[in-house]
Structure formats: structure tokens, C-alpha cells
Recover the amino acids of this structure.
């Protein structure tokens, strides 16, 4: 009962020496980050001009439609607030 649970017959194990990552300077970290970003950007599948134009038009049309929707509700609530509070 007086034995430690983890001991194997009283033999002591040496702690494993783990390699500590070498500390890098501030600018070395920035350089590593920029190189990593550059490598990831090379993997990106960029749209061609037609795909970009089509996506841009879709976004513009949706923004205009939502703007008109919000403007219409604004007019409705402005009219209702004029009736209620005057």
C-alpha cells in the first residue's frame, strides 16, 4: 500500500528530454509569416475576368434590391409614425 501507483518495482525513470523549440527573433517570425501567406496565396484558385464580372453584378443587384426593400419599409414606418404621433 505504501508504493506509488506508477512505479514499476521501485525503478525510477529518467524524464524524457524534450527539444525546446528555438526562440526566433521578432523579424524572423514576421518573415516566416509572410512566406507562409505567400505560399498559401499560390494555392488559391483565382476567378477569371468573366467570373469576377458576373459575381460583381450579382452583388450589386442584391445590394440595390435590399436597399430598395429597406427604403420601402422606412417609408411605411415613417408614415405610420406620422399618423400615430401627430
Amino acid at each position: 500500500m505504501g508504493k506509488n501507483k506508477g512505479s514499476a518495482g521501485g525503478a525510477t525513470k529518467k524524464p524524457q528530454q524534450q527539444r525546446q523549440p528555438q526562440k526566433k527573433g521578432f523579424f524572423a517570425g514576421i518573415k516566416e509569416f509572410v512566406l507562409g501567406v505567400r505560399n498559401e496565396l499560390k494555392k488559391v484558385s483565382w476567378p477569371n475576368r468573366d467570373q469576377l464580372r458576373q459575381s460583381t453584378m450579382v452583388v450589386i443587384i442584391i445590394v440595390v434590391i435590399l436597399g430598395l426593400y429597406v427604403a420601402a419599409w422606412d417609408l411605411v414606418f415613417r408614415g405610420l409614425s406620422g399618423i400615430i404621433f401627430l
Q: What stands out?
A: The mean pLDDT is 85.
